[in-house]
Write a sequence for this structure.
């Protein structure tokens, strides 16, 4: 049942959910890297991630998540403090905890509460407690590793920039509330709002290891907590204290940096800025944004206990109270205020480093809407250019203006495409977990390597290739890689190798999944295909490429038995269908005893492509530019016919099948005589053919739109587009068209 919450709390919960998913993904990625000399650093990082989730959950009252993360911290402390080595079983418990936390956060996302998962959280907490007991009983020690974290090894520049930008937003919001506090209708809620912002900054600071910033927030929270309890007046003096503390936070955030890993001392100094303050107590720049009380204590102008008493009873500015009760001389107060303002002895204002936000969070539905509008803009632009009202007119100025508009719209399109491009890293990290689980289930040790994870791809395309990757990797481990004893007999290492890679190739991204297993068995695949009636004629005449393509057919499997991993003939069918949906292709390279490589060839984006528009009869079709090799007019001498009556075209020593577009789609009035039309040599899926059309209309950017539902699925057509004159052009799925036509002809 969905819990009723106010808009402000809802916004905080939405932020908690987004950050929770992100932190759990990071924790799982760190878990997947355990097993080397840097394990202590990774465990520390995982601990901080759990701690951050716990802190936010506790503040929002999600007791199930809070309790579960607390138990997870206890297990990690066994590894970190008691120096007991993580076992595969204990790591399984942590992985299961991460999975359950994801489930609980998903519940929070839908219900704004985690109460429905309370029982599951308690059960998992008991499992963790049992795991801790088992580890302590076993007492498996590990070599002592110095508990030192080089910050730049755990946190990259982008993360720091994002952290600083988010904290700057929170500080700005807190300042806005503080400035309006005196006239606020509900002062208690205003203080709570500031408390929430500071608490979030504190949690993030703890995750990044910024101890000084975290301490500032803790002191800030103590002041706000006193205010919430009603122990101080929420007047001008209190507001001044808030502003001073917010400025101190801004100053600390402005000094955060990431340096080279070798500069460990510098990293340590930046991670603990209070050390820098101690080293240079007379530096006005370092002290410019310290609280006034701290400055007075550092100067020796006032005692710490006097300052604390004044803060506890603060109803007016701190300086006034100290001067009034005789704890401070007016001259010392004036000097301290000058230092706080950054004027120092020279009277110069200390520079303030401006924190600029370099990114914002945007709902993906808004990005999709923007993407659609850019497509409409390009279509509208083409309609204007091809308007019949402009036909025959000489409009030089219009042409120049339109060329400028076209340049801008192209840049808008490219920028919009870049906005939706994200690295494949998060997708590839999930495969680490998959490989680990499958390796344990099948008792096959696997050396899993990932490269190219920085390659960027359209977010919507990434969502479509997740399932294909999962199924290919499952098959590679279950079918491809042999058992350790079999590998040893074959002269291989007992540990199988699996390599996941991504790279740019022209307008495509190629994702490769390569194993060093047994390879595909041609005879077994053909035997199964013959049994199912998928192959007609002489099996020996079937080329390897067509044999490998059989494994993507629905229900096809050569597995001797069905396992929980594979064997039902469903997985590879999913690969094919998902790739077809995004106009992708898959190539297979395999050698007996050496392994198999699947190469997914995927377009960078699904929405806008470059293509050639052609006409056949009264219909228009668009062909992706990458599928076209050349155009030519065929001579009668180049035409030949096979024994089965199929027309072929001789082109520079090659014999290519002829596909008549008008015949395939039964288009009235389309040219069927090859010598009267235009021939386009198209290539897709390792096949080439000559495509007969009436004429080439032109080259243009094609804004891809899906076919209307009432048309249903049209074989050989992947979508449609709107031409400049408003005419609909069907986008040809070249690979599917050739496959259908050539298989029907028996070629």
């Amino acid at each position: 049942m969905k819990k009723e919450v106010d808009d402000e709390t809802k916004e905080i919960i939405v932020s908690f959910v987004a950050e929770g998913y992100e932190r759990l993904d990071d924790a799982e990625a760190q878990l997947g890297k355990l097993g080397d000399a840097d394990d202590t650093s990774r465990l520390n990082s995982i601990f901080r991630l759990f701690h951050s989730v716990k802190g936010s959950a506790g503040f929002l009252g999600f007791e199930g998540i809070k309790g579960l993360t607390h138990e997870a911290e206890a297990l990690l402390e066994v590894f970190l403090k008691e120096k007991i080595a993580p076992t595969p079983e204990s790591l399984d418990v942590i992985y299961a905890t991460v999975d359950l936390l994801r489930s609980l956060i998903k519940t929070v996302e839908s219900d704004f509460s985690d109460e429905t998962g309370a029982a599951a959280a308690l059960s998992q907490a008991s499992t963790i407690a049992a795991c801790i007991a088992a580890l302590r009983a076993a007492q498996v020690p590990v070599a002592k590793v110095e508990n030192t974290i080089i910050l730049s090894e755990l946190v990259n520049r982008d993360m720091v920039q994002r952290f600083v930008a988010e904290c700057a937003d929170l500080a700005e919001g807190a300042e806005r509330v503080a400035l309006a506090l005196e006239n606020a209708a509900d002062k208690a809620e205003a203080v709570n709002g500031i408390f929430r912002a500071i608490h979030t900054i504190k949690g993030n600071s703890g995750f990044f290891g910024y101890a000084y910033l975290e301490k500032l927030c803790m002191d800030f929270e103590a002041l706000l907590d006193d205010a919430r309890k009603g122990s101080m007046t929420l007047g001008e003096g209190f507001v001044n204290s808030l502003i001073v503390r917010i400025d101190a936070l801004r100053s600390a955030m402005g000094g955060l940096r990431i340096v080279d890993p070798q500069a460990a001392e510098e990293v340590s100094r930046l991670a603990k800025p209070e050390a820098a303050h101690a080293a240079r107590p007379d530096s006005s720049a370092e002290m410019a944004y310290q609280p006034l009380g701290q400055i007075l204590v550092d100067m020796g102008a006032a005692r710490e206990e006097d300052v604390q008493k004044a803060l506890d009873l603060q109803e007016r500015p701190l300086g006034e109270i100290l001067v009034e009760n005789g704890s401070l001389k007016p001259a010392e107060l004036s000097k301290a205020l000058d230092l706080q303002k950054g004027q120092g002895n020279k009277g110069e204002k200390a520079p303030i480093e401006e924190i600029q936000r370099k990114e914002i969070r945007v709902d993906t539905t808004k990005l999709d809407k923007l993407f659609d509008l850019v497509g409409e803009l390009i279509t509208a632009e083409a309609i204007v250019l091809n308007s019949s009202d402009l036909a025959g007119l000489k409009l030089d100025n219009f042409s120049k203006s339109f060329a400028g508009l076209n340049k801008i719209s192209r840049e808008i399109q490219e920028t919009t495409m870049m906005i939706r491009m994200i690295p494949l890293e998060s997708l590839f990290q999930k495969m680490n977990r998959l490989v680990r689980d499958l390796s344990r289930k099948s008792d096959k040790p696997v050396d899993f390597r990932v490269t190219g994870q920085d390659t960027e791809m359209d977010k919507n395309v990434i969502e479509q290739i997740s399932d294909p990757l999962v199924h290919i990797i499952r098959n590679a481990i279950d079918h491809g890689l042999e058992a350790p004893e079999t590998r040893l007999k074959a002269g291989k290492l007992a540990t199988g190798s699996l390599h996941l890679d991504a790279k740019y190739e022209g307008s495509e991204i190629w994702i490769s999944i390569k194993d060093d297993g047994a390879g595909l068995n041609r005879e077994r695949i053909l035997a199964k295909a013959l049994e199912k009636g998928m192959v007609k004629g002489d099996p020996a005449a079937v080329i390897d490429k067509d044999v490998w393509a059989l494994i993507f057919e629905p229900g096809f499997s050569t597995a001797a038995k069905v396992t929980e991993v594979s064997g039902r003939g469903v997985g590879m069918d999913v690969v094919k269908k998902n790739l077809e949906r995004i106009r992708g292709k898959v190539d297979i390279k395999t050698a007996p005893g050496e392994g198999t490589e699947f190469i997914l060839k995927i377009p960078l984006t699904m929405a806008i492509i470059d293509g050639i528009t052609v006409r056949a009869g009264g219909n228009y079709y668009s062909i992706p530019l990458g599928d076209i090799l050349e155009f030519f007019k065929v001579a009668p001498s180049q035409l030949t016919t096979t024994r089965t009556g199929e027309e072929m075209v001789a082109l520079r020593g090659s014999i290519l099948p002829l596909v008549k577009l008008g015949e395939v789609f039964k288009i009235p009035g389309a040219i069927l005589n090859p010598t009267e039309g235009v021939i386009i040599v198209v290539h897709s899926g390792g096949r080439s053919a000559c495509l007969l059309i009436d004429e080439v209309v032109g080259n243009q950017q094609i804004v891809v739109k899906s076919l209307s539902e009432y048309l249903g699925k049209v074989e050989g057509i992947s979508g449609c587009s709107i031409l400049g004159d408003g005419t609909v052009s069907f986008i040809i799925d070249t690979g599917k068209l050739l496959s259908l036509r050539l298989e029907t002809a028996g070629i």
Q: What stands out?
A: Confidence is low (pLDDT under 50) at residues 140-154, 259-290, 343-355, 564-569.
